[in-house]
Specification:
By secondary structure, this protein is an alpha/beta fold. The chain is built from 9 helices and 10 strands. The chain has 2 domains: 161 residues, P-loop containing nucleotide triphosphate hydrolases (Rossmann fold), CATH 3.40.50.300; 82 residues, Rossmann fold (3-Layer(aba) Sandwich), CATH 3.40.50. The strands form 2 sheets. Strands 6-7-8-3-9-10 form a 6-stranded mixed sheet, sandwiched between helices. Strands 2-1-4-5 form a 4-stranded antiparallel sheet, with helices on one face. It is globular. The model has no long low-confidence stretch (mean pLDDT 90). The protein binds adenosine-5'-diphosphate. InterPro entries: AAA+_ATPase (IPR003593), ABC_AA/LPS_Transport (IPR051120), ABC_transporter-like_ATP-bd (IPR003439), BCA_ABC_TP_C (IPR032823), P-loop_NTPase (IPR027417). It holds the Pfam family BCA_ABC_TP_C. This is ABC transporter ATP-binding protein.
Length: 248
C-alpha cells in the first residue's frame, strides 16, 4: 500500500438481512487531507462510518489503518490507534463549564477519567491546556459558562475541542454542520480547516458548499457503492453523480 494512505478499505460490505447497505466499497484516504463522503440519503454513508469505527462488523471486506488490519478491532482500540469519531467522545456534561468539559477529556486521554475533584496543583496544568484548546476552537469567551448554555454551533465546537484533547491523528466528523445557521457553519468550517493542518479528516456532510470549500477529495456513494471519486470540480460535473442526486 502506498505510504501516504492512512485509511483504506477493500471490498467493504455490510448486509442487513437480505439488504446490502454497503456493497464492496474501496475507499482510500490520503494522510493529511480532508476527505468527504457524500451521497443521497440511504447511500450507506452512516453505515460506512459505523463500519470504520467498529460500531458495526462488516459482512465482508477489510479495513486497514496505518498499515494495520483493524477489521476485527473494537471501537476503543480504534480510538487508541488514533482514529476518533467526534460524537463518540463528545458526551458534553451540560452543568459543567466549557473548560471543565475539555479538561475531563484531557484526563481521559491520561487515563484518569472523571477524576475531576483532584487537588489544584494536579489540575492547574490540565486547566491551562484545556484553556488553550478552548481558545483554539474559538470558545475562550465562554470558558467558564456551563456547557449546556452554549448555542448549538458552539456546542459542536466544544465537541471538536474535546476530540482534539485526545490528540487524534485522524478525525471522523459526522455531519459537522447539521442543523447550523450560516454563522455557525462559517465558524466550524474555519475550525475544521485549522485543525486539519496536522491531521487527517474524513467527514460525512450534506452541505455541498462546505464540501466544495473544505474537501481535498470526495467519494460519492450511491446505493452502497462508490459512484465517483475525485475533487469537487470533477465529481460535481460527473453525470452519474448529478443523476444520483436528482433521482434521490
Ligand atoms: P446514509 O447515511 O447515506 O443516508 P445509511 O448508511 O444510513 O445511509 O443507510 C443505508 C441503507 O441501509 C438505508 O437503506 C438504510 O435504510 C439501511 N440501513 C441502515 N441501517 C440499517 C439497519 N440497522 N438495519 C437495516 N437496514 C439498515
Amino acid at each position: 500500500m502506498a505510504e501516504d494512505i492512512i485509511l483504506a478499505t477493500t471490498g467493504l460490505t455490510k448486509e442487513f438481512g437480505g439488504f446490502t447497505a454497503v456493497n464492496g466499497v474501496d475507499l482510500q484516504v490520503r494522510r493529511g487531507t480532508i476527505h468527504a463522503l457524500i451521497g443521497p440519503n440511504g447511500a450507506g454513508k452512516t453505515t460506512c462510518f459505523n463500519l470504520l469505527t467498529k460500531f458495526l462488523a462488516p459482512t465482508k471486506g477489510s479495513i486497514v489503518y496505518n498499515g494495520r488490519d483493524i477489521t476485527r478491532q473494537k471501537p476503543a482500540d480504534i480510538a487508541r490507534l488514533g482514529m476518533v469519531r467526534s460524537f463518540q467522545i463528545s458526551a458534553v456534561f451540560p452543568q459543567l463549564s466549557v473548560k471543565t468539559n475539555v479538561r475531563i477529556a484531557l484526563q481521559r486521554k491520561r487515563g484518569d477519567s472523571f477524576d475531576f475533584w483532584r487537588s489544584e496543583e494536579v489540575l492547574q496544568p490540565l486547566d491551562d491546556e484545556a484553556l488553550r484548546l478552548v481558545d483554539a476552537v474559538g470558545l475562550a469567551a465562554f470558558a467558564e459558562l456551563p456547557a449546556g448554555e452554549l448555542s448549538y454551533g458552539r456546542k459542536r465546537a466544544l465537541e471538536i475541542a474535546t476530540t482534539l484533547a485526545l490528540d487524534p491523528e485522524m478525525m471522523l466528523l459526522d455531519e459537522p454542520m447539521a442543523g447550523m445557521g450560516r454563522e455557525d457553519v462559517e465558524r466550524i468550517e474555519a475550525l475544521i480547516r485549522k485543525v486539519s493542518a496536522n491531521r487527517t479528516i474524513l467527514m460525512v456532510e450534506h452541505n455541498l458548499s462546505v464540501v466544495a470549500s473544505l474537501s481535498d477529495r470526495i467519494t460519492v456513494l450511491a446505493r452502497g457503492q462508490v459512484l465517483a471519486e475525485g475533487d469537487y470540480a470533477a465529481v460535481s460535473k460527473d453525470p452519474r453523480v448529478i443523476e444520483a442526486y436528482i433521482g434521490s
